[in-house]
Specification:
Elements lengths: L7 H22 L8 H15 L3 E2 L17 E4 L2 E3 L13 E10 L2 E10 L5 H18 L8 H14 L3 E2 L5 E3 L6 E5 L16 E4 L2 E3 L5 E3 L6 E3 L5 E3 L2 E5 L4 E3 L11 H5 L1
Antiparallel strand pairs: 1-4, 2-4, 3-12, 4-5, 6-10, 7-8, 9-14, 10-13, 11-12, 14-15
Helix pairs in contact: 1-2, 3-4
The structure holds 2-amino-4-trifluoromethylsulfanyl-butyric acid (MF3) and cobalt (II) ion (2 copies).
The site of one cobalt (II) ion has 5 residues, from loops.
């Protein structure tokens, strides 16, 4: 287990990859509506990455140990699906909440980001879950600075989510990222302050909390990829790729269409 530190030149490459991943989400915004299938979103995203960006969709044929190759270019996780949902021919319907997770490879560097989309108006409960999960991600990001520890990030996310009556999924975590899709360290979205690895400038990792409206328990579907909540309660997730800088953090997966950080980020 070893954490690779990125040089200034490496970070230049990761900034490009991160921005491109976010720009795929920007491009998809206008297409996420009732009646569109996730296969159509997958095709739009794939073609944009390959033909417009000159990038590679990292999920396509990705096969970590114990997994069959992932068959699509993006992940689309709807309602009670927690993560790794596989695009299919079912149309989105009014009120669905959808996580779209994009990972591009550009010049060998990975950028990994996801956002929640609400189809139509959405219920109050669904919108609240999406908004609070976004804030939970940023509670974690705001802890990132040299000298802080990974446990500080997890603790900030967990305490915020649980204070809102929500549950943090434990089986999946953020991850180091760079020339590889998933590197050390693991970035847990729960934990105790002052524990685990100390953050140092040049570390790059994702923060990507999965937050459930009901219980934290999950199960895997028979497709070998899709993760759902055991109680079928709604689940939300947001993801950014973040670098540790000399003075704090830099979010690498920002684009023109990124939602602004929650108010507390500028307030502190
Ligand atoms: N993008 C996911 C993450 O945030 C990983 C997806 S793996 C895939 O780590 F194969 F399902 F695409
Ligand atoms: Co990730
Ligand atoms: Co991702």
């Amino acid at each position: 287990m070893s954490i690779t530190l990125k040089t200034a030149a490496d970070l230049e490459g990761m900034r490009v990859a991160g921005r491109l991943a976010a720009e795929v989400l920007d491009m998809l915004v206008a297409h996420v509506k009732a009646g569109v299938t996730t296969d159509q979103l997958d095709r739009l995203a794939h073609d944009h990455m390959v033909q417009v960006q000159g990038a590679i969709p990292a999920p396509l044929n990705y096969a970590p140990p114990g997994y069959a190759p992932y068959p699509k270019s993006i992940c689309t996780s709807i309602n009670h699906q927690v993560c790794h949902g596989i695009p299919n021919d079912r149309p989105l319907k009014d009120g669905d909440i959808v996580n779209i997770d994009i990972t591009v490879i550009k010049d060998g560097w990975h950028g990994d980001t996801s956002r929640m989309f609400v189809v139509g108006a959405g219920s109050i409960a669904a919108r609240r879950l999406c908004t609070l999960t976004y804030e939970a991600m940023w509670r974690g990001i705001a802890k990132v600075r040299p000298g802080a520890r990974l446990g500080d990030i997890g603790h900030a996310i967990q305490t915020f989510a649980e204070a809102q009556g929500l549950a943090v999924v434990r089986e999946f975590c953020g991850h180091g990222i760079g020339r590889k899709f998933h590197e050390d360290p693991q970035v847990l979205h729960y934990g105790r302050p002052g524990t685990l690895d100390e953050l140092v400038p040049g570390m790059v990792f994702t923060i990507e909390p999965m937050i459930n409206a009901g219980g934290r328990e999950i199960r895997e579907l028979g497709d070998g990829w899709t993760i759902v909540t055991k109680d079928r309660s709604l689940s939300a997730q947001w993801e950014h790729t973040v670098a540790v800088t000399e003075s704090g953090y830099e979010v690498l997966t920002l684009s023109a269409g990124s939602p602004p950080p929650p108010a507390f980020v500028n307030a502190t």
